[in-house]
Structure formats: structure tokens, C-alpha cells
Amino acid sequence: MAYRFTRDDVGYLDGATGRAALAEVGELALTSASLLKDLEQVRRAHGDRAAALVETVRLRRRATAKLADAGEWLFTDDALQQATPSAVARHRAARLAGRAVHDVTCSIGAELTALAPHCPAVLGSDLDDVRLAMAARNLSGHRNVLLAKADALRPCSVDTVVIADPARRADGRRTHDPAELQPPLPDLLDTYRGRDLAVKCAPGLDFDRLEWPGEVEVVSLDGSVREACLWSPGLAESGVTRRATVLSSKAAAWTITDAEPDDIDERAPGRWIVDPDGAVVRAGLVRHYAAKHGLWQLDPRIAYLTGDTVPEGVRGFRVLDRMDFREKPLRAELRRRDCGPLEILTRGVDIDPDALRSRLKPRGSRPHTLVVTRIGRAATVFLCATP
Ligand SMILES: C[S@@+](CC[C@H](N)C(=O)[O-])C[C@H]1O[C@@H](n2cnc3c(N)ncnc32)[C@H](O)[C@@H]1O
To answer: 88, 124, 232, 317: which could form a disulfide with 273 (CB 3.0–4.6 Å)?
Structure first.
């Protein structure tokens, strides 16, 4: 069970005594092996503040994977889970540079901190007192940020761009129903109709059903799809209704939109197979991506691409052989090639890669990748070199 912080905890942690205690607790290992002993030590020194101190130090350590410069921040466990990763928040902030922005569900301020260096004025509001108090601490270095308690469904700013990030319900039920979000997405969109608005949503949102009049941008970070952001028409690039943005902590970001060409030839499979980034697939821009990089599709309904070259920085699979998907001849071929560690990728076929791997029993020494997919009606397997 996560610790439930109070306003009083935040006041203590933000004061001189709390800061000194946090520095002290920050020296402890707090691993699962040492936790009981460490907790006992913190209790002896700081009494009933121990739980808030230990939880804060543990959350700060977890936050480093997601948030930049948050080593001195205050969080709740839920707020950290919900916080937008810094790389994604910075990307959104760069699109809003020069505008005054109001984050109407600001929580502990992960978006605000990315907006502050780019925007002349930044407002943050939320209904949760504890999170607002934490945001005040987390944003204390920024003079252009103002915080207030306010309901996102009762607008309290004018002439600002509004950004929102409605939360999943607190009861933990996973639902993609936009009306179940807090605040509910349909109410939020009604409230700010006609305003410049950017709403962060789960990437699983059925945005085709939403008939959004602006741009939907699907963002991935380091290969994992993080969000779909709805940009109102005034903030969208002209002619763009879908965009995929691929962010990486190791390489330059890139983006592709449906305003780019999507004409590709129908051709036999080439020398390579390419599995496009999830953001491209989720945004429905597989053909656009193929056209941009001289690739084509294995099948018009399947997101795998093929070609004779691989776009720079992309993990492609060099095709060694192609067979109809039948397990017995496939197993024999794997044995003949001394196939060992086997990566299995599937699309468009009802196959569990782990179960297939255990049936194929690859005992050889050479790593290979199997791409199992459907071409027309036929299940087909491409035996590839593992990149
Ligand atoms: C997913 S979190 C936002 C996270 C934030 N974007 C970040 O990166 O840290 C959603 C926030 O909306 C707040 N909230 C829910 N309903 C609200 C409402 N009607 N008005 C204002 N805030 C609301 C919750 O308290 C929560 O802090």
C-alpha cells in the first residue's frame, strides 16, 4: 500500500527540518533487504515522519528513470505514475513555445516544469490540495508559474492555451471509455470548445470514433507508445490530422504526418523486413512511412514493411528464407541451420510466440528471428538473421 501524503507532510518535507531529514534518509540503501532495518533507524530519529520520509526518498529514486531534474521533488506514488515523462512533456512544450499556457490538471507539475522555460506565463490548477502543494515546491524555481485550486470543468483563465491530462479512475479499473476519465473527456472537450486545447490521452483511445477536428499526435519514447495527444485545429499544423512522433533518449526525434505522400508499389518481399515504430502503426501512418523510406508492404492489411534497404537507425531483419507456416518443416529447417536463441515476431496470425518457441525447440547456437505473418490468406514465415 502506498503512503498517503497529507498537506501537513508536504509542509514538513518542504521545511528546513524535513529537507535535512530527507538528505539523511537519502544516504540509506532502502533496498528490500535493508528496508525494515532502515525504517527502524528513521523511526528512531524522526518518529512518525518516518513513512513520509522513506516514501519520498524511494519515489525520488524511481523518478530518475522518467523525470529530469526531479531529485528534490515531492511526489505521491500515483502522481509519479501519472506524470508525463520529461522527454514527452518537453516535446509538447516546444510546440507551445511563446504562448501563455494553462495546465488544468497539473498534478505535481511535470508538464509545468517543461513549459516554464518556453512560455511567458504558465498557470497550473488541479482539484487535489496535496498535489498542488507538491507542485508549489517542485516549481519553486520558476517565477513565471502560478498555481491555483480549480475544477478543470469551470474555466478560470482567458487567452491561454489549455492543456489537460485526464486521469484514469482511481478504482484501478482499466477502461478506454473517455467518459470514465477524471475529468471526463467529453466534458473537457465541451468546456473548451473553440479554445486552443491540447489533451493528453492514453494511446489506446479510439480516436477515430472521436471524430476530432484537429490533429491526433501519437508519441513514442524509446520504442514504447506513451500517449495520443489531441491538438485543437488552432494548434494543429495545416493539413495534418494524424502525426506520429518518435522520441528517443539516444537518437534525434523524428515525426511523420498524413500530409506526406503514401503512394507505394505492390511488390514481392524485398531483402529486409522492417517493423515500424508503434507510434507510426498506432497513428495509421504505415504507408506514409513506407513511402518516405522507399519501403513497401508485405500485405496491405499488415503493418510489417519490406524493402531492399533499412532506414537509418532502424532495426531491420535480413530475410534468409521464406516458407509457408507449417511447424514440422520449419522445425527441420531451424535444426538444419543450427538456429539457437529465437526471437519470434507475429502480426495478423493467432500465434503465441512463447508457445511456438517451446514447440519449435530451437537448440542450436545461431540467433535467428522468425517473422510470422499473413500474406493474403496464407500464414507465412520469414526466417531472418537477428540484427
Ligand atoms: C493524470 S494526472 C495529470 C498528470 C500531469 N499531466 C503530470 O504530468 O504530472 C490528472 C490530474 O487531474 C486531476 N483532476 C481530476 N479531475 C479534475 C478536475 N475536474 N479538475 C481539475 N483537476 C482534476 C487529478 O487530481 C490529477 O492530479
So the answer is: 317
For the CA of 82, the closest atom of ligand 1 is 1
Q: ω into residue 120 within 30 of 0, thus cis?
A: no
DSSP 150: -
Ligand 1 atom nearest to CA at 200: 6
Centre of ligand 1 to C-alpha 244, Å, is: 25
C-beta separation of 102 from 159 below 8 A: no
Give the dihedral sign, CA 163/127/207/113: positive
Average pLDDT for the chain: 95
Nearest to 139 by CA among 39, 230, 233, 67: 67
CA of 284 to the centre of ligand 1 (A): 29
pLDDT tens digits for range 106-163: 999 999 999 999 999 999 999 999 999 999 999 999 999 999 999 999 999 999 999 9
- CA gap 88, 221 in Å, rounded: 7
Which amino acid appears at position 142 of this protein?
Answer: H
Residue nearest atom 25 of ligand 1, based on CA coordinates: 128
CA separation for the pair 84, 4 (Å, rounded): 21
**Residue 258 near residue 285, CB atoms below 8 Å:** yes
Pocket probe mutation, ligand 1, options 107, 134, 139, max atoms within 8 Å of Cβ: 107
> d(Cα 212, Cα 161) in Å, to the nearest integer?
17
> In the chain, which stretches have pLDDT less than 70?
170-175
Q: How far apart are CA 311 and CA 42, in angstroms?
A: 54
Q: What is the DSSP string of 259-301?
A: TS----------SEEE---HHHHHTT-HHHHHHHHT-EESSTT
C-alpha 255/C-alpha 271 separation (Å) is 25
